[in-house]
Write a structure and sequence with these properties.
Elements lengths: L7 H10 L4 H8 L5 H8 L12 H23 L5 H4 L3 H9 L12 H19 L7 H6 L12 H8 L4 H18 L5 E4 L2 E4 H11 L4 H18 L3 H6 L1
Antiparallel strand pairs: 1-2
Length: 242
């Protein structure tokens, strides 16, 4: 049953299911940073009115988050032979991945610098963060063509629908989505969210939306389930014979 809102359980679950972000879940569970801070820094939680919040708190949170990013990036990049050739810092690579921070701004002084950084770092950034149905923010800015970033929750289905995923990514996502589809069709399936308990079709639709399952696939699999149900149903003669 998926969690909702800004709860620690929801944020941990979301981090665990996203490739490349599980280290943040580890940091939360180790007490190195709060789930709320991670949610704010990733933009998963709307930033509250800052009245009564000390500027130093926001800076401290941002510094801690950036340190965790640097540690993770260092571990990933340490294995890369091409990092030296791109000429970018870890902070600059992280901005190409996540975008400029809404509070501290960009590391680049102009759009021209940003374009040049993407050209230099594209291969590294894509190798580290451009897989599993996700694309870095610089890709959305410069390489996505007419596609617009739909938000984190709808990114994977948008890329799937646009046909820009690799064959391995497509296979991986469709297998994951099929598991979520079958899970939602268990006889006892329900969802509890926002003080409401959903059952039946409402629960299925809510879960599939949460998992970002493309409606085209859901409709295809639902039709296949109905066909199987008709084939497996006993004939009228067999029922009468019993």
């Amino acid at each position: 049953m998926p969690h909702r809102g800004t709860s620690k359980a929801y944020i941990l679950e979301r981090l665990r299911r996203e490739e490349g972000l599980s280290y943040l879940a580890d940091a939360i569970e180790a007490g190195r940073i709060s789930s709320h801070a991670v949610g704010l820094e990733l933009g998963w939680i709307g930033r509250p009115d800052l009245v009564g919040v000390r500027d130093g708190q926001a800076k401290q949170r941002h510094f801690l988050f950036q340190r965790l990013l640097r540690e993770a990036a260092s571990r990933a990049i340490a294995k890369a032979s091409d990092i030296d050739s791109c000429g970018l810092t870890l902070s600059e690579l992280q901005e190409l991945w996540l975008g400029a921070h809404p509070t501290t701004g960009s590391h680049f002084r102009s759009r021209e610098e940003l374009v040049a950084a993407w050209e230099a770092g594209r291969a590294v950034v894509m190798r580290l963060w451009g897989s599993h149905g996700r694309r870095p923010m610089a890709w959305w800015e410069f390489d996505a063509g007419d596609l617009k970033h739909p938000g984190y929750d709808r990114e994977r289905s948008t890329l799937w629908r646009a046909g820009v995923l690799s064959e391995s990514e497509r296979t991986e996502l469709e297998a994951e989505w099929r598991r979520e589809f079958e899970h939602a069709h268990r006889p006892d399936f329900f969802i509890s969210t926002s003080g409401e308990v959903l059952h039946g079709d409402a629960a299925v639709q809510a879960h599939l939306a949460w998992a970002d399952v493309p409606i085209e696939l859901a409709q295809r699999w639902a039709a296949a389930r109905r066909r199987r149900g008709r084939h497996e149903a006993p004939s009228e003669e067999a029922v009468v014979a019993k």
